[in-house]
Specification:
Number of strands: 4
Helix content: 55-70%
Distance between the termini: 42 Å
Low-confidence stretches: 1-49
Shape: elongated
Mean pLDDT: 79
Number of helices: 11
Strand order of the largest sheet: 1-2-3-4
Strand content: 5-15%
Structural class: alpha+beta
Length: 433
């Protein structure tokens, strides 16, 4: 290639420029070629044969069944995902692929002006022989950068699915309350009709009729609000989805997440730690001597040299800079511990919240059964003429309130289960991401 560009026989000259470096020294140098690319397609960014973080992400199984209502919602919103995080991952993989070749020599143009006023153009070839771990750290940094981007893509995907499922659950809860409110409204309209007849006959007070009509108006208002909530949630969900989801119905049961699944926040902190450590190594190597071979190939002649130097130089603040680099390593490790603690706190809080909701739902079920029994008793006594209609109205109002609470507990518990799955990153199959 050089011969064709320069118009002369430069092949032997190019080899002579590095003839001072023996094959044994090149094999033992720090810049030895890296191993194959990481599993999961990290683009050959490091010396490791695989990435545990990416392998772990690929092996994750979703707790959602694809045939369930939750699975249908998740599939529809993922099909319409713009996946900005995917573009970031692709860029990181390209950077990693470039870094995987940093052990090869670099070639650049050289233009100089001689003392006779002539312009001499040539090529400069640089090969780092010893860099105090800089090249290896650059590959490690690129590998960790891919891992950070991969975890970021998993977080982004799980967040999107959680948002969509949250909207779907809101719509289903509102629909359930509308159905429950319809039964209450029909029964209350019957009471209002009876009260009107009793007032017309002079048996009951008009104040009781006004109270009954007020309660009927409140029930109708709650129904309208619930219907509007369902419509808004579905409209927003359809905006995120590839296909309309108006006909999807029901709550789905979800599988229990694996006990060994590591939270995504912890995985990201571990990947960022590796990246920070690699960056610290790169910064440290800037204060240490490096050895490189340089060849200058020009039309008028060629030259070769062996250079020793430092990138940053040595100054009065060098010691403090080196200590700051070591402190950055320790800080990166502590961030992982902090992320582990924060994630554990979030999971324990969600687990306790789920236990409380399930207990409240069970208690609400008992209260609802008791309210049904009281309503039946009061209704029989009312028909027998023992109870006034307002007593029955108040008992029925209590039953309606307990029923709405029980509906809320069921759907809130479903949301908490999905939040736990999102924290662990198991709302979507890793291979699909």
């Amino acid at each position: 290639m050089l011969s064709g560009c320069m118009g002369s026989d430069l092949g032997e000259t190019t080899r002579n420029a590095f003839s001072a470096v023996s094959p044994e020294k090149q094999a033992n140098a720090e810049t030895t070629a890296p191993q194959p690319a990481l599993a999961g397609g990290t683009g050959g960014s490091g010396d490791e044969a695989q990435s545990e973080i990416i392998d772990g992400l690929l092996g994750r199984q979703s707790i959602l069944s694809s045939s369930s209502s939750f699975g249908k919602v998740a599939g529809a919103v993922l099909a319409a995902n713009s996946r900005a995080a995917e573009a970031e991952l692709r860029a990181a993989k390209l950077r990693a692929d470039a870094a995987s070749k940093n052990w090869l020599p670099t070639i650049g143009p050289s233009v100089s002006l001689t003392s006779l006023g002539e312009v001499v153009a040539g090529l400069v070839i640089d090969q780092v022989l010893f860099g105090n771990g800089r090249k290896k750290a650059e590959r490690a940094f690129a590998k960790a950068d891919v891992e950070v981007a991969a975890v970021g893509l998993a977080e982004d995907t799980n967040d999107r699915v959680l948002t969509a499922l949250g909207l779907y659950i809101d719509a289903e809860e509102a629909r359930a309350k509308v159905r429950a409110g319809e039964a209450v409204r029909i029964r209350m309209e019957r009471f209002a009709y009876v009260m009107e007849r009793r007032v017309q006959g002079g048996v009951s007070d008009r104040a009781d009729l006004q109270v009954t009509r007020q309660k009927l108006a409140e029930i109708a208002s709650n129904q309208d609000a619930d219907a509007q909530t369902a419509a808004m949630a579905i409209a927003e969900l359809n905006a995120m989805s590839l296909v309309p989801l108006n006909d999807v119905r029901g709550l789905s049961s979800v599988h229990s997440p694996s006990a060994t699944a590591k939270p995504l926040s912890v995985l990201k902190a571990e990947a960022e730690r590796e990246r920070s450590v690699a960056q610290a190594t790169i910064d440290r190597s800037g204060f240490l001597p490096t050895v490189s071979a340089r060849g200058n190939i020009a039309k008028g002649g060629s030259s070769a040299s062996l250079d020793v130097g430092t990138e940053n130089g040595i100054g009065f603040g060098t010691g403090a800079s080196l200590k700051a680099i070591e402190a950055a390593r320790e800080a990166a490790s502590r961030r992982v511990d902090q992320a582990d603690e924060d994630s554990a706190r979030v999971l324990r809080r969600l687990e306790q919240q789920l236990v409380a909701l399930e207990r409240q739902q069970a208690n609400s079920g008992s209260l609802l059964a008791q309210a049904d029994a009281n309503l039946d008793l009061f209704d029989r006594q009312y028909k027998a003429g023992v109870r006034p209609v307002m007593d029955v109205v108040r008992v029925y109002e209590t039953k309606a309130r307990v029923e709405r609470e029980q509906i809320s507990y069921a759907y809130r518990a479903a949301k908490v289960r999905l939040e736990i799955a999102r924290e662990l990153g198991v709302l979507v199959d890793g291979a699909d991401i």
